[in-house]
Design goal:
This protein is an all-alpha fold and 114 residues long. It is built from 4 helices and no strands.
């Protein structure tokens, strides 16, 4: 079976988020401030997925983000967006930055790959 970059388990919320927000990663070349903002959001998501105790060091990046954990986080976040009747703005707001960061994590950790 040939896996596309947007494949994943049936019903996985990462597939839809990636299809919608992954193209925003191409804007990094044109908006340097966007890279920093998305990086901060990606760090916040990673920290939410793998909280550390005081004095504890973060494990290697490849060991930090798991597809199942990121999918659960994304499902909760998108459910909250639905509850508040959020709609995607033309530019970037907290939610689009967070969803773009989720896409960055998907790409960096190959979470929807083969």
């Amino acid at each position: 079976m040939d896996a596309s970059p947007l494949s994943g388990p049936p019903g996985c919320p990462l597939v839809g988020v990636a299809a919608t927000y992954m193209p925003r990663l191409s804007e990094f070349a044109f908006e340097p401030g966007l890279v920093a903002a998305v990086d901060q959001h990606a760090a916040a998501v990673r920290d939410a997925l793998v909280p550390l105790l005081p004095g504890q060091r973060r494990p290697e990046a490849a060991d930090v983000v798991r597809r199942e954990d990121l999918a659960d986080y994304t499902l909760g976040f998108t459910d909250w967006l639905s509850e508040i009747d959020w709609s995607e703005p033309v530019g970037y707001d907290f939610a689009t930055l967070r969803l773009t960061a989720v896409c960055w994590l998907i790409r960096e950790h190959d979470l929807l790959g083969a």
